[in-house]
Amino acid sequence: MTKLPEFRILSAREQCSEAEWQMRVDLAACYRLIALYGMSDMAANHISARVPGEDNAFLINAYGMMYEEITASSLIKIDNEGNILSKPTFIGNDYGINRAGYVIHGAIHEAKHDLVCVIHTHSWPGMAVSSLKCGLLPLTQTAMRFYKIGYHDYRGVVLDLSERESLVRDLGDNNALILRNHGLLTVGFTIPEAFNAMHRLELSCRTQLAAMACNTELNEVPPQVLERTYMNYQPQTRRPYGVMEWPALLRKLDRIDPSYRD
To answer: From CA 234, how far away is CA 241, in angstroms rounded?
Structure first.
């Protein structure tokens, strides 16, 4: 049996402000939850969060670590151009960042200063719906929340900075974007809000694929009902998403493995 080299990460707690550390803990929790709910793609994809009090800085995963092993200390701080501002001390290995991550996430953080969190996934339901010409259909109450979701046409692996403008434009004022032939993206004013949106968007994709697989006529909802239901999900008509369930989700993680807090 091949013996793996020692791998550990020194704590970054003393190098962070209280606000940044709390953001790191919540972001690490979000990575663990994405893995727990079956939305991760090994070491690919990214979740980012703006560093409190630092306008041109956000946290992102170390490229090469699995989502279920992300910790508060393992996150790398970069600017919107992808320059590393600070990184943890890795013992036994070393990691950097993935270019596609900062191209996508940096574009949104740079253009929308009020947004805190960006989540991008390559789940199989998300990729499947992203490849359908019809896109996401408002078949269920959950999917109606994304009745006016944005779409971004595929142009290859997102490595070109020139694609940033169109990414931001296609997202618009929505909190979710389908990257055609690619995957899903959600944003939020908080990490819990962005996770809530991704969880519901993923569920919408799963139910659509299940319904379409039945090979029978789909039941359509009248446009006026779709519009009214969509408006019921908007910020001006309800409390912010994620507020109620986030503490419970953290308790769930603490029961499973509290190491995300390290």
So the answer is: 10
